[in-house]
Amino acid sequence: MKAFLKNLFNEERGLETVEYAIIAGLIVVGVIATIASIGTWVNTKFGELLTALSS
User: Fold this and answer.
1) Residue 36 to residues 28, 50, 55: CA-CA distances in angstroms?
2) Helix, strand or coil for residue 1?
3) Sign of dihedral through CA atoms 22, 24, 27, 31?
4) Residues 46, 40: contact at Cβ < 8 Å?
5) What 3-state class would DSSP assign to 7?
6) Are the CB atoms for 10 and 16 separated by under 8 Å?
7) Cα–Cα separations (whole angstroms), residue 48 to 3, 5, 42
8) What is the pLDDT at residue 6?
9) pLDDT the model gives residue 8
10) In whole angstroms, what is the distance from residue 45 CA to residue 2 CA?
């Protein structure tokens, strides 16, 4: 296993794969954070609408 990881990091294609995995992970984290933020905003707006309609 140790030799496999060493070869993976020594090969250029292996490094590219690791770089793409890191980039993909960062994009996924950004998308999740954005969706969570938008979800909170939408929930707040619906709450305000419900309050306005109830009055």
Assistant:
1) 12, 21, 29
2) coil
3) negative
4) no
5) helix
6) no
7) 59, 54, 10
8) 74
9) 66
10) 53
Token couple for 12: 């250029």
Question: Rounded distance, CA 11 to CA 17, Å?
Answer: 10
Say which residues have a Cβ less than 8 Å from residue 14's Cβ, sequence separation at least 6: 7, 8
Q: What is the pLDDT of residues 2-52, one digit of tens each?
A: 887 777 666 666 678 888 999 999 999 999 999 999 999 999 999 999 999
Amino acid at 11: E
Query: Residues 6 or more apart from 18 whose CB is under 8 A from it?
Result: 8, 9
